[in-house]
Amino acid sequence: MSDQPRKPLPRPSPLSQPFWDGLGAGELRLQRCDSCDTYVFYPRPYCPHCLSEALTWKAVSGRGRVYTYTVIRRAMHPAFQPDVPYVFAIVELEEGPRVETNVVGCAPEDVRVEMPVKAVYDMTTAGIALLKFEPA
Question: Strand order in 39-40's β-sheet?
Answer without folding.
Answer: 39-40, 29-33, 55-59
